[in-house]
User: What shape does this take?
Amino acid sequence: MKIRNKLIFFYVIVVMVPVLIVGLIVIQYFRQDALEKATEQTENNVQRIKTQIENQLNVPISVSNQLLLDRDMERVATTVYPPDDPIQLVNAYRGYTDFSDYLRAYSEIKGIQLFTDNPTLLNNLQFMNADSAIQSADWYKKAMGKRTIYWMYIEDLNNPSSISGKQLSLVRQIFFPNTGKRSVLVVQVDTDYLNSLLSQEPFDTMVADEDGYIVAAKDRSTIGRTLGDMGFEVAVGDREQERTFERAINGMDYQVSINTLIPDSSTSGLTIVSAFASSSIVHDANRIGLIGAELIIFILLTALLAVYFNSRLISSRLLKLNRNLNRVAEGDLGTVSRIDGHDEIGQLSEQFNYMVSNINELMSQVYEASETNNRLEVMQREIKLKMLASQINPHFLFNALESIRMRAHIQGEKEIARIVQLLGKLIRRNLELGNRHTSLKSELDMVRSYLEIQKFRHGERLHYELAAELDTLLVLLPPLIVQPLIENAIVHGLENKEAEGIVSLHAVRVGDEVLIDVIDNGAGMTPERLRQVEESIRDKEENEESRIGLRNVHQRLIMTYGEECGLRISSELGKGTQIYFKIPAGRDE
Assistant: This one.
């Protein structure tokens, strides 16, 4: 397959097809995401409305509970009034103001009516005679049949000219114990508040009673109709019903969320329904997706044309370069490539010309390079010989120190002889240790040699103490761990101290660990300097300048035993410094 066809093929397979697939997936994702967010918002709105409605319905329930025990209301409703003396009835009505008081106190209720089978009552829209028409009504029969609370959409006797002539009301039986009579209490709910509440919702929302009659809605023209008339054949009246589903209504897909509210002490309740057309939610997502798809297709087709023309141009230039290479392969070293451009192919053409024009020169350079390599090998051998000659034989160094010690001893310089002996011992131990572990006893012997040499330098200005418990002497630890700490105490703590300097080492065993600390009474450090020293020894970057410094000791300890066994430093300016660490108390078997 030619390069041009390969480029087009791979562009289609690797770019066009995946981009189109991803675009479709993204469009579908945005569409589904918009539906899910709208559904979630609907469910939240329904829950919020349910809470607000429940708070409003608690007011009529509370009022009815108080009237249930109202003996004044019983007296007005059950008294038999003489038909020839209406003044007595009027005075009774005037004297009882609880209904009016409740209406003024609570804006959630619109009216209160008590229906009693008492022919001597005159209807004043509060106390009503339950005539045969009233007694034959379904709501009256239900209330008289059971002592519970019903929520019904019944005729509004106070305002028969309302939108549907009905009003959402609390209906319950009232039993009068003094007379043994029963009446029906109707507390009308002010649905104007519900309608104003629903009018603020973004989606169509309705509230229906257990018979499916819409008692309040965002669209007030639907009040009085049933949910079935609106296309929402949902099971109303189910207790604790809460679900969301998709339903086709009049040829359109709707997302419907329903929730049933059963107030306390109630047999029936209200159903809250919120719905929105899926097309209205995904319309913007579909429009944006369509625009995005058109833009992607346009860009892909434009890029395809660009790939096609560029591939033709590349192929033709590569063919020219290929013909020039064939000429050189046939031995024509005078071939010159004339391909314009500053891209990779143009650079290849220039490099081709450079290669052809310098082929003979390169052959001569190969010969010269061979001669140069021979000379470099000779020079390297000479450098190695010089390095070997400059090395000091450790045995020669020890023999020289021993000769110096013997000469000093013969001449009576016993102190110098002892110091030279200690120095030789210290150097030999450093050379012989390697990487193997050593005992604390051996390490302290080397420290004692180092301190004696330093005491020779400083005289009575330096005093030291090495105190190690017997059960710590056989503990193994890496070599050259303690001596750098002693050296640090002398060099940095006591070197410039004019008064008497003291360095002490203590090693004690605590359980399965050995604690070792080095204390000096030297210059000490400020808190800032102490912080810098602690940061420097914990620096992860390797410091090649010092092999046995504090950082070297700290890093070797944590690499051998773990982070908790690293160096710990405490210091106070003018009083001295303490460096301590702990190691496991393992012994050499």
